[in-house]
Amino acid sequence: MAHAGFSVSQADGGQRRITLTGQWSLRAVDNNFAELRGRLASFFGDPLAEWDLREVEQLDSAAAAMLLAGWGGRRCPHSLMSSLQAQLFSALENVETPHRRQPIDWFAPLAMLGTLAAGLISQMADFLGLFGGLVLEVFHLIRNPHEIPWKEISANIYKGGVMALPVTALVGFMIGIAMSYLMALQLSKFGADIFIVNILGLAVVRELGPILMAVLVAGRSGSAMTAQIGVMRVTEEIDALAAMGISRIQRLILPKLVGLTLIAPMLVFWTSLWALIGGMLSAKIELSLGYAFFLQRLAEVLSPVNLTLALFKGLLFGFLVTLVACHFGLRIKPNTESLSTSTTSSVVTAITIVILTDAVFAIMTREIGL
Amino acid sequence: MKTSAPAIVCEARKISTQYGSTVVLHDLDLKVYQGEALALVGGSGSGKSTLLRHIIGLNRPTHGEILLFGEPLQEIDREGQRRVRNRFGVLFQQGALFSALPVFDNIAFPLRELHQFDDETIHRLVMFKLTLVELEPEHAWLLPAQLSGGMIKRVALARALALKPELLLLDEPTAGLDPDRSKGFVQLIRSLRETLGLTVIFATHDVDTLISLADRVAVLADQHIVAACPLPELQQVDHPFVASFFRDIHQRRERIN
Questions:
Q1: Scanning A50, A74, A225, B65, which has its CA 20 to 30 A from the CA of A359?
Q2: Do B131 and A32 touch (CB under 8 A)?
């Protein structure tokens, strides 16, 4: 297959004649139309030039469109071609070309604000709908306790809780070591070594444990839930459930919500435990504070109500993360872009809401247990 | 370009494939000649899709090799592979359109990847391809999720044909279409095949598609090709799968008459 080429000669009237030869087609893989167009550029600018296409072995739509673009959208009047080629050109000419320039829309920012507000309202409406559905489902289950999806709840406890044990322990332990180490450096300057137990105990149990747990669960289980529900929507599995007369909220949402809400306080306890172990280890190395002393002192300075608070926070955070994850999962539209944005939004929103709630909580409980 | 014996576009040599302990294909040989339409038929799980995936180069057979246009796809470098891949187009069973992109960008995608055309030319070409597969210009801005099954197949066909391939591979081209649409789609493939001079390999279950599109039928059974010949000659082949297949065809014809 000869690839596309051309030759230039002098026509009878003195004007230039460009004779195209070879395969003017994408099928000849050696063709490079960008390069050809560059080489032909000077002839495209010449309004008198004659174009001879009769020697072309094969002309395909891509090559024809390239030539047409060079001629400025209309077939060159001085062109010689077969009727078949002419048909192709007129078919391509009749294709509507795009409106290149969009007129400037001065109301665009206002429209964007409106779209944003409308989006927010639709989010709130969906969220409220989901919450209402959940409440109704809970009432239904109270009246029909045999329908409670124990198996799914148990599976979610295992997936969201038990499988999360290693990562939460590791992160808690590392944070405990890092915090304790930095604090030890500062406190030893004032000779206030012993207060490391107070600070570490309070910070870990009251704040860090629940927040760490929430962030890890949002990243680990929240994103997984959103993606799972989303893909089930795309593959119409949710519709299949509905067609069998099974409530999607009862089978999909409720077990996740109950499972993770139940296991979250225990994860908080577990994470805090490892953070304290890390802190204790670091205190022993840096400040030579004995383990027994550390534990004894911890029991003295940390009132049990702090632990109750932490576990309650865990309950709340687990609930919020799951609710947000399910909400975004149900909003996924059947395309890959929506799947990725919704999963991102799910994790970001969950973490933001958790931190906001935590701040409110910290202010509300400032009198308790300090 | 005309030669006495048609050139071989695709050749499978002693292909064997095993997934775990299941043998899917064993010692399979197949030749596809330029310009023909070859149908791959076989029961469910007979390895039709596996063979197609081997030809496209998505999976490697355990033993044996596939030659496309005389070249073994797996053994050439990346640039060479790309050039060979631009010479064939694939229509996947579900269309496999990029779901985040509208129809226009789906068809424009292979053209843009060539880096040879400016936006205006690409626009003209995409719109032209749309008319080629009998779709309206206003469909260009719809997302794949908004299309019906038949439209998805047409758009996927336009995308597969965007680079003017010599070989078109179709996996179940009419699966999931109603009889009317499926007939229309087969007609479309037939007319495009004629105008573009395509070689077509397709896997199918559908008898009507087979009768109206195939020049030659390759029957896949017992892990290899038991017969590869034109449809009428297939009646002489003595194999239980072929026999039952023909019984089906006859029964259908009788019911229609």
A1: A225
A2: no
Q: Which CATH class is domain A5-93?
A: alpha beta
Domain ranges of chain A: 5-93, 120-364
Domains of chain B, with CATH numbers?
A: 1-87+168-178+202-257 (3.40.50.300)
Task: Quickly list H helices, chain A.
Answer: 33-44, 61-70, 83-93, 108-143, 150-160, 165-190, 196-202, 209-217, 223-234, 237-243, 248, 254-287, 291-301, 304-330, 336-364
How wide is the angle at C-alpha B166 spanned by C-alphas A54 and B2, nearest 5°? 60
Task: Name residue, tokens 């799910």.
Answer: A346
Beta strands in chain B (DSSP E): 8-19, 22-33, 37-41, 63-68, 71-72, 88-91, 167-171, 199-203, 216-221, 224-229
C-alpha span between A167 and A317 (Å, rounded):
18
pLDDT above 70 coverage of chain B, percent: 97
> Is A99 strand, coil or helix?
coil
B contact test, residue of A23, A29, A233 with most B CBs within 10 A: A29
- Residue A248 burial by Cβ neighbours in a 10 Å radius (0-12, 13-18, 19+): buried
B158-213 tens-digit pLDDT? 888 888 888 888 888 888 778 888 888 888 888 888 888 888 898 888 777 888 88
- Mean pLDDT is lowest, of A210-224, A253-267, A310-324, B114-128, for B114-128
pLDDT digits (tens, 9 = 90+) for A97-106: 655 556 788 8
CB-nearest partner of A98 from B123, B144, B165: B123
Identity of residue A294: F
Q: How confident is the model at residue A235 (pLDDT cuts 50, 70, 90)?
A: confident
Do B118 and A69 lie within an 8 Å CB cutoff? yes
Per CB-CB distance under 8 Å, the chain A contacts of B125 are 61-62, 65
Contact state of B124 with A337 under an 8 Å Cβ cutoff: no
Mark out the alpha helices in A94-147 (DSSP H runs). 108-143
For residue A84, give Cα distances in angstroms to A60, A81, A90, A93, A132. 11, 8, 10, 14, 66
Q: Please give the Cα distance from A112 to A315 (Å, whole number).
A: 38
Closest CA to B96 of B40, B171, B37: B171
Looking at the predicted structure, is the pLDDT value of residue A349 above 80? yes
| Amino acid in the structure at residue A277 | I
Predicted complex ipTM: 0.70
pLDDT tens readout for residues A11-36:
777 777 788 888 887 777 677 888 78
Q: Are B125 and A68 a contacting pair at CB < 8 A? A: no
Q: How far apart are CA A279 and CA A290, in angstroms?
A: 12
pLDDT for residue A171: 95
Query: Are the beta carbons of A27 and B166 closer than 8 angstroms?
Result: yes
The minimal CB distance from B117 to the residues A1, A66, A334 is found for: A66
